[in-house]
Specification:
5-stranded antiparallel sheet, 267 residues, 7-stranded mixed sheet, 26% helix, 33% strand, alpha/beta, disordered N terminus
Length: 267
Amino acid sequence: MSAFRPVARRELQAAPGANTSIEAPTYGRELAQAYDAVMAEAAWPSLSRGLARALSRAPVAAAADIGCGSGRVLQWLAARGHSPLFGVDRSAAMLHLSGRRLDRRRVRLMQQDIRALALPQPVELITCTFATLNYLVDDAALARALAAVARNLRPGGLFVADYIPWLDDQAPPSTHHQLVSARGRRSAWRTRLDPQRGLSETRIAFQGGVVERHVQRHRRPAEMKAALAAAGLTPVSAFALGPGGPSPWRMLVARRDAGRRGDVRHG
């Protein structure tokens, strides 16, 4: 079982000696393990249902998961039968966790920045989950990542991603507190929101003294739709996933335009 619930400010105190200088999404081994044990576990039920909905009519073919983290989505795609299958993350610690979870005979893991994505071959599906797109704070970074996705998809291929948007960018700045629990483990979240700038800063304290700091950009749905279109990705659908913090957590599905120039030459 996993749960999100509001908590009192006193529950947010980190353990003595906790490392409060780590900034996500650069994960060392200790932080990667804490993230997977709590955050990924709590989000997975909603996310897996969303993936099943998004891909209910999609062909089972070559696929890649970018920002693959600890490999939960790759494991799900492998069980669905996707092959060949590629996992991309810039964190060596996260790739290590993925390697422990997956059958390496079926999945190839690569350490890359998604803004410079270069898969060994074009694929029919690219997934990007756990709000990875929100960490692309600059518009230029998002544009580079989406262009790289389009270059690595076959014409007509699907891009499936989740993100957390703003629906009310005129709200005043605010602070929210949550306790996220999964299988007896928990983390305390303190999120400071600046809706007018579209930014959030979240401090997450895990049991055992590990602390993360996340800075994210939250774009309006119309902004995300425009960014997809500029990259040659036509939005197909979008829907709510479930609990994801103060703003609605959404999944989007887009299709790569046929005949787009600038494709990657794959060896």
